[in-house]
Write a structure and sequence with these properties.
single chain, Growth Hormone, Chain: A, transmembrane helix, MFS, 0% strand, MFS_trans_sf, mainly alpha, globular, Multidrug resistance protein B, membrane, 2 domains
């Protein structure tokens, strides 16, 4: 039996529910771990640059796996892919929960990542083939509500667990839920897809791995190792060469692993550009605000998590509302309004002081997240709407891959700006302090002065990084003015069968 994506077809709500719960668990697990890194460092006796591999490694595996998902979605059924992805994620979670040395924990995280990398593009593709264009905004809004709930509760829940239990409880908490979701998927999902005769080009897979993996590793390492490290610029150079080779190879193939021809559709190309730029700006808040509140202001991890909670809740609640507004008004009005709010609030974050109140930070972050909620899902949905159905797997895989790469680039850029500007401000503040000193300070006064200089310099470095993020957001705002409401490109008659095959589950 085939399930068409025509307007008269009934969406597979059971399948969507199972997929959304699976994606939620995978997303929640990633947000849970960030606040536990200091505890893991202490318990497993590793330094900050080593423990960061729990995040970098996860991102690397995602960047390597996601480009293959377009092939996997076309080759295999939703049921088979979901069970494989959820099994990998569950196995990784169980191993991580019993890990007593760092290499085992890192390996477990990478196994988790290989499962979660399949989950998101799979869910996005099922959403696209389940709903007609005029209802996709509302559907994507509900999808956004569920996924935004993860970062909303993740930091606060993680802070509470870390204060009362061992960090391994983060994985023990997720394990039974993952097992239940896996069992539900096994019994509920039906395998109806006919065998598709396509093969994975192994050389393309190698080029993709070197290309995206090299870029992600290089940019992720730039913040800690510096741009002058051969390990950084060397891997970025290898990544660029491999990626160019990969793109040229895909353009020559009849059945490419990842189809770059989708960029000939102008709204998809524009939406990809905007989401990449917004991702880079968005990481400023995720990265810089925790540094400011914990390192400079001395706010506890639990209170820092609570501070981010209202903004994440606003984003979650607004997601279905934004989806319905998108169906009614299209993407340009929403994206331009949201990016204007995001740009203004990011600019105000570049004016932080040592006395900025907790309430001010909560409100400013909440308004910023309100703006963000009007951008990401409408822009990406508008771009995907222009693609013919046969390109849905490639569109979702491309979007998720570009999100990983732009996130890594944004993080590296902002960390570099913060670090370099902190050093510059420290030298300037120290020279100014010595110039105005009435007498030679005592050792105790000198130590206190150095600490104050370090704090002020870091604050100014964070403000400068937020200002760069403001400029990045402004670029996205300008690009959003060119958005037009997308209409699906016409499929050729012989491709209607491919459209139906994509809808089979």
């Amino acid at each position: 039996m085939e399930h068409s994506i025509e307007k008269t077809s009934r969406p597979q709500y059971g399948i969507l529910a199972v997929l959304m719960i699976g994606a939620f668990i995978a997303f929640l697990n990633n947000t849970l771990l960030n606040i536990a890194l200091p505890s893991i460092m202490k318990d497993l006796k590793v330094d900050a640059s080593t423990v960061q591999w729990l995040t970098t490694g996860f991102m690397l595996v995602n960047g390597i796996m996601i480009p293959t998902t377009a092939f996997l979605i076309q080759k295999y059924s939703v049921r088979r892919l979901f069970l494989i992805a959820m099994s990998l994620f569950t196995i990784g979670t169980i191993i991580a929960g019993v890990a007593h040395v760092f290499p085992i924990l890192l390996a477990a995280r990478m196994v988790q990542a290989s499962g979660s990398a399949i989950m998101m593009p799979l869910l996005m593709n099922v959403m696209l083939v389940s709903f007609p264009v005029e209802k996709r905004g509302a559907a994507m809004g509900v999808f956004g509500l569920i996924l935004m709930a993860a970062p909303a509760i993740g930091p606060t829940l993680s802070g509470w667990i870390i204060e009362h239990y061992d960090w391994r409880m983060l994985f023990h908490f997720v394990t039974p839920i993952a097992v239940v979701v896996l069992l539900i998927g096994y019994f509920l999902l039906k395998d109806k897809k006919e065998k598709v005769n396509i093969r994975l080009d192994l050389f393309s897979l190698c080029l993709s791995t070197l290309g995206f993996g090299g870029l992600l590793y290089g940019f992720s390492s730039a913040g800690s190792k510096g741009w002058d490290s051969p390990q950084v610029y060397g891997t970025i150079l290898v990544g660029v060469v491999a990626l160019v080779w990969f793109i040229l190879r895909q353009l020559k193939m009849d059945m490419p692993m990842l189809n770059f021809r989708i960029f000939k559709y102008p709204m998809f190309a524009l939406s990809s550009s905007i989401t990449m730029v917004v991702n880079m700006a968005m990481f400023s808040g995720m990265l810089l605000i925790p540094i400011y509140v914990q390192t400079i202001r001395g706010i506890s991890p639990m209170d820092a998590g609570l501070m981010m909670l209202p903004g994440a809740l606003v984003m979650a609640v607004m997601s279905p509302v934004t989806g319905r507004l998108f169906d009614k008004f299209g993407g340009r009005v929403l994206a331009a309004t949201g990016l204007l709010i995001t740009t203004v609030t990011t600019y105000y974050f570049s004016k932080l002081t040592l006395d900025t109140t907790y309430t001010h930070l909560v409100l400013l972050n909440a308004v910023r997240m309100f703006g963000m909620s009007m951008v990401m899902m409408p822009v990406s949905t508008n771009g995907l709407n222009q693609l013919p159905a046969r390109f849905y797997p490639h569109g979702t895989a491309m979007n998720n891959t570009l999100n990983q790469v732009s996130g890594a680039i944004g993080t590296a850029l902002l960390v570099t700006v913060m670090s370099n500007r902190t050093e510059t401000h420290a030298a300037e503040i120290a020279a100014d302090a010595m110039k105005h000193a009435a007498a030679q300070p005592t050792p105790a006064a000198l130590a206190e002065m150095k600490q104050q200089i370090a704090m002020k310099a870091m604050l100014e470095g964070i403000n400068d990084a937020f200002f760069i993020a403001t400029l990045i957001a402004t670029v996205a705002l300008i690009l959003s003015l060119f958005i037009k409401r997308s209409k699906p490109a016409e499929d050729r008659p012989q491709e209607r069968q491919a459209k139906q095959q994509l809808a089979e589950n």
